[in-house]
Give the backbone structure.
Amino acid sequence: MLGTWTVNGLYELQVPPGLAPKRAANGLGHIYIQVKFIDNPADDKEPQAPPVTDDIETQLKLDQERIEGTLKVVVAHGLKLLPVDNDSTTSDPYVQISYNGKTYKSKHINKTLNPIWNFKQDIPFSVLKKDPPKLSIHVFDHNAILSNNLIGLKEFKLDEVFANPGLIFSF
């Protein structure tokens, strides 16, 4: 809105495209920004910036806040999966869940494009609230002799799960 403070908060610095950050694991830091647009400085009803709303010490403590618990994951079934077997009409699909460096694998189901896995996995976690790792679900075609083929995957961050306990995702 014209003449109002449209930005007033703490923002994480980002790496410019094409540059490798020196401290990527710890981030690049944060800056507090206040911005408003006015078309005529004489009409500015609030010439001074508003008070800073984020206390830096409080924000630094929040950045270290951890979430601990159990992530319950259920992969019920697949539907119309890509056929990748040699006959090009079926697959032998299985699911692999990856989270925070750990991997969990279902059993494969022979010769189907609509597998019913009912694969359930409880995953213990303790992560920083501000930056939870991604949950990755890969679907592979099992091969006894050759390497397994990736059929597809779904990845998402879990911020929304942490903010809404009990929420059910489907994809």
